[in-house]
Amino acid sequence: MKTLNRVVSAVLAAVLGACGGGSGGSSTGTATTGTSSSTASTFNYRQAVLNNDQNGLTLSFNATASGASSCSGSGTFVQSPLTSLTTFNTLTTQGVSALSGAITITINWTNCSPTPTLITSTDFIDSTTLVPLGFSEAGVYGVYTAPPVIPASVAVGNTGSLGAVQLYTDSTETASLGSESVQYAVSAGADSSDVTLTVTTQSYDATGTLVATVTEVDQLSAAGVLTPVSITMVNLLTGTTITLN
Questions:
Q1: Which residues pair with 98 in a beta bridge?
Q2: How many CB atoms lie within 10 A of CB 152?
Q3: Half-sphere exposure of 164 (CA within 13 A, CB side)
Q4: DSSP 68
Q5: Span 131-157, pLDDT tens digits
Q6: Which residue pairs, CB below 8 angstroms and at least 24 apart, start in 79-85?
Q7: CB 212 within 8 A of CB 16
Q8: N-to-C CA span, the chain
Q9: What phi, psi does 34 have (nearest 5°)?
Q10: Which of 54, 63, 111, 236 fits a disulfide with 26 by CB distance 3.0 to 4.6 angstroms?
Q11: Which helix (H) or strand (E) holds 54?
Q12: Contact at 8 Å (CB) between 237 and 227?
């Protein structure tokens, strides 16, 4: 659902210093989508997300970072199938039965250091309902405040929420880091057999100040295949932007 764009936020933090991200001035990322109408009236969003959760996903991409100075490079994203039985602490229940899977993203920068940038994370879904529960990565434990509702089907023009996440330093959920809200919008695809899903995550610090946005553009085909196309993350505190495409 938002696996890749959430991991990108960790990548941004890892390369800010190396790429010279300075203070002052925010930048915004934009994504261009197709304008043709799709032959199918609705597209199965929830099943496409489950397919990626259960089968895994491997992508190669080009990367750019802009701010006080610029970086470029390329990398890979690997989402392992969420099949390992474990437990996850939610906001209301400790030790919920969950399935987990590792996520690894590597960026080899050609004109920045450190290279490569390596980020690892773990996603968790409910073992019974297969609904996302949250994620864990170095120094961050994210928990959905309520089970997110992924629409079974979507059509051009649909918009809605994909949930809210509370962020903590660890699974004890005692030290807050802030929160995230996730929204989606559906527009016409590149051709008649798909639609474009734009998923926007807004990240807030513990005081409620908006500090970053991540925009992921996905292609959803009539066959139920969900493929990330591009991701743009903007750090509003430094004016640094990272784009993967």
A1: 86, 126
A2: 10
A3: 7
A4: S
A5: 999 999 888 999 999 999 999 999 999
A6: 79/3, 79/4, 79/52, 79/103, 79/123, 80/56, 81/53, 81/54, 81/55, 81/56, 82/53, 82/54, 82/123, 82/124, 82/125, 83/54, 85/127
A7: no
A8: 17
A9: -75, 170
A10: 236
A11: helix 45-55
A12: no
Which residues make Cβ contacts (< 8 Å) with residue 207, sequence separation at least 6? none
The dihedral built from the CA positions of residue 223, 44, 80 and 218, taken in this order, carries a sign that is positive
Q: How confident is the model at residue 167 (pLDDT cuts 50, 70, 90)?
A: very high
User: What predicted TM-score, i.e. pTM, was given to this entire model?
Assistant: 0.82
Alpha-carbon distance of 99 to 84, in angstroms, equals 5
List C-alpha distances in Å: 122 to 6, 9, 10, 136, 140: 11, 14, 13, 5, 11
Q: Rounded to 5 degrees, what angle do the CA atoms 57, 45, 105 make?
A: 25
Amino acid at 222: A
Go through the chain and tell me how many residues it has.
245
> Contact at 8 Å (CB) between 183 and 196?
no
Q: What is the mean pLDDT of the chain?
A: 82
